[in-house]
Design goal:
By secondary structure, this protein is an alpha/beta fold. 43% of the residues lie in helices and 15% in strands.
Length: 547
Amino acid sequence: GEMVLKELLKHPEVGLVPVGFVDDDRTKHNHRLGGYPVLGGLGDIWEIVEREKIEEVIIAMPRAPGHVVRSVVRAAARAKVPTRTVPGLAEIVSGRVKVGALRKVEIQDLLRREAVKTDLEAVSGLVQDRTVLITGAGGSIGSELCRQVAVFGPRRMVLLGNAENEIFEIQQELRVTHPELATTSVIADVRNGERLRDHFGRYQPHTVFHAAAHKHVPLMETNVAEAVTNNVLGTRNVIDCSVQWGVERFVLISTDKAVRPVNIMGATKRAAEMLLQEAVARHGRNFVTVRFGNVLGSRGSVVPTFLKQIHAGGPVTITHPEMRRYFMTIPEAVQLVLQASTLGEGGELFALDMGEPVRIVDLAADLIRLSGLEVGTDIEIKFTGVRPGERLYEEVFFRGEDVVPTEHPKVLRSRSNNLPQDLRRRVDALIKAAQKGNDEDVRVLLRWVVPEFHPESSAGAPERRAIPAPRWSRRRMREGAPRPVPVSERRSGSDRRAEERRSELNRLGRLAQFMGKDQRVGLDRRSGIDRRSPVPAHSDTEMGATA
């Protein structure tokens, strides 16, 4: 606060006249700092603004957590005065901005958490003087990985992606910020295994960060085959190339939607996690997965959508008032991805501590206030209903996973070996169906590959319709006839089991067209219970025998 005061007094041309301080430390109340009074605590902001005729509030707390920043912004909005802030501690430490620099309060400030402490030495040992390959290098996470990895001085950075403009932009940025760094841009699709093998053979990376993926939940619900070929086939190709060319470290960027998935995107990312774990079981490599939630500012994030709706005069549309999500900023997520990559021994799933889940409606209301508007008066919030593939809450681990802390307080570790013995064959059948483009067959096979995939559990799944009871005459009631009650479309226990058996047989018939003869025979010999139960991963020899 005192530093900001000095800057304001030093530069009167900015037109900001200091009036006083607000601080929750009661020992400072009724005292003066730098000649200006401490007027009260944060809870007194509205009263102070009214009494002192304040025209703007400056938040000079770079270490303050998000909930404190939110309370100040809301108090200032109630008093109808704008707010500005000094940068967060992470921005100051990075050297990108000075302490005295002021800017508008952004949504990242409202979700601010304690700055992540990264073990710089460990990360440096992972990439310094090494060749690092990043897939999806032009995307939100991929490009930030490029920025942060570049700081540690890799020998070469291979930027791989199929979006030429985004790859061009990040390469040009790196050439300005790190002119000494050798960068190679590769325009390629991870689904093209032959092209990937050529580039892996040419550059032989030591470390691979696999960030390329389709991540848009509603879009993938209607583009199922595309989700499978990109997220499953693409991941399998990158893993296979990494094994073939001796990659030492591999990090798969995954999502909390892979936990008990209810949508296509989450199920395909879970299949990708399983492929990585299978590769570790077979080859003993140091390959790991890192899961995290929604990333603020990424493409497809709700924040840009909300801002466009606010700019257009509203309404801001939200699917459900109780929809909650975990959020991280892009730099924060990537810092923890790098940290997790140094902790792995092979096969682990790392989840990042994302704090408390945030209600989307609260996020929207804060954005409206930050725009200088009022909810309900200037901008309406409209609830549109949950979309297919969505659920109200997300999780970061499966129930029953062995979750343990790591040396880093913001990173949790688990192992999950609950893999079907014939995972590769199942994935082969899934990919074959996806390449044929039949979305319905792909959905059936995806549930075979990922047994915990239950799309009917999503909040947006169609509800069962009730069949109304027929009208019952008084005469029949007098005759003692039993009165019917409303029933749902669910059948009785025996009928339902028969229906499930018919559905199972039909499903197996559809699966058969994507399998070889020996695989069909093997499947037919397993009981219904066996077919539904995952088989733990086996040793290298056993896995090799089934490949």
